[in-house]
């Protein structure tokens, strides 16, 4: 089970189920949660007297998943540097080096076809670090064990599909439609917490489409207070119609155990990905090529916008889909393809779940005015390629500009922002690692008690613009401060370039 120690995710196939072609004769087996079967055991409307019949019907399709792994570890030799170092392990020269050890992992899963396709979380069947998974074993509710083959996995959505070969049709369940889930609905989770075998817990849906703040393309979960613990990962979350509406995935826990906040991948997200993994199709996601930031209260106030409406663009990739559509750093995107960008429906989620090559309208706010551009969604790069996007330039730790600043008088800028600035010259720009033709003012002193000081401003930051207007002198910055106060704004949006890094927008509270 993954742990989130701080609130640290699509289209459902037609109908309420995901149908798969099996190798067994038609009618040989029906889903454990097929309508004719489930109607006999579902609880009455309202608070159920018991989940026993529903559990007995569904539990045979829920499985335990265990792996054997060989992982690399660093070993310390207590006799390193002594004549006895060779007596401890096989390490030579310094007494440390990589060694391998055997490890196991436990999780849950559920069968989705009579011929043995099994759904689970990717992290359940993925080795730690540089390790390798040597074998995967699936244990049925009746104790039967089968070796499993990995069919496909997708790290971004944390989903994986396994296959077991049995000589008989297996009990299975279908995906339901999580789009109809409501806060307060009853749910049950079946899995194998702490390797204890089939365990059932019940609760309600606490929130739908919860964004946990990890910024991923699938950061959109069903939240539940049903007890979910280590080993429940990959197990199903059922509604009271016996349909799989979620896949248990993570918990919020400062202690490592359940505190009543668990997260499940919605079926509407999981079902199409599972289908593609079974067919061996590539999982392609949309991509705009932007670096984004939630529209915080400070940002909204500096721009004169409503709180919690849209996401702020810090930067765009040159020649990326966003740049080609005319989207610029400093824009606030409020709608994508007609869908509002909110905390629970982030820009990353909306774009990632858009087919690459699609042309979509993007509604944004620039300089206080709404406008709409059309973007052709690109294909999301690999994780390795993404890691190189927006990479900062080399650090400049030995920059001579770090000499202590001279004390300055308290003027408008100092009083309002807690900053002292001086015009940026080509010589200072070179010292700070910026281009000679960079225009702006450079910070020479910061009041650590100011909002700018609390947000990491330091000597050597270059201020490029204020509230969308270029800043080339202290007078320009003063004018921007006065204009913001005249408009009743409590914050000023500065575009700054830290030493050796790319420019970013930072809202600063006015004093």
Largest sheet: spatial strand order = 8-9-10-13-12-11
Class of secondary structure makeup: alpha+beta
The best one-word shape is elongated
List the quaternary state of the chains. Answer: single chain
Count of distinct strands: 27
- Main sheet specs: 6 strands, antiparallel, barrel
Number of helices: 11
Helix and strand arrangement:
Layout: E1 2-4, H1 35-38, H2 52-58, E2 62-76, E3 96-111, E4 117-120, E5 132-139, E6 145-154, E7 159-164, E8 186-191, E9 199-210, E10 221-224, E11 236-238, E12 244-252, E13 262-266, H3 267-279, E14 286-287, E15 290-294, H4 297-303, E16 311-316, H5 321-325, E17 332-336, E18 339-340, H6 347-352, E19 359-366, E20 369-376, E21 378-379, H7 383-388, H8 412-417, E22 419-423, H9 426-431, E23 441-446, H10 451-454, E24 462-466, E25 469-470, H11 474-486, E26 491-497, E27 504-509
Structure characterization notes:
It is elongated and about 80 Å long. It has helices at residues 35-38, 52-58, 267-279, 297-303, 321-325, 347-352, 383-388, 412-417, 426-431, 451-454, 474-486; strands at residues 2-4, 62-76, 96-111, 117-120, 132-139, 145-154, 159-164, 186-191, 199-210, 221-224, 236-238, 244-252, 262-266, 286-287, 290-294, 311-316, 332-336, 339-340, 359-366, 369-376, 378-379, 419-423, 441-446, 462-466, 469-470, 491-497, 504-509. The strands form five sheets. It has a six-stranded antiparallel barrel with strand order 8-9-10-13-12-11. The chain has a six-stranded antiparallel barrel with strand order 2-3-4-7-6-5. 41% of the residues are buried. The chain has eleven helices and 27 strands.
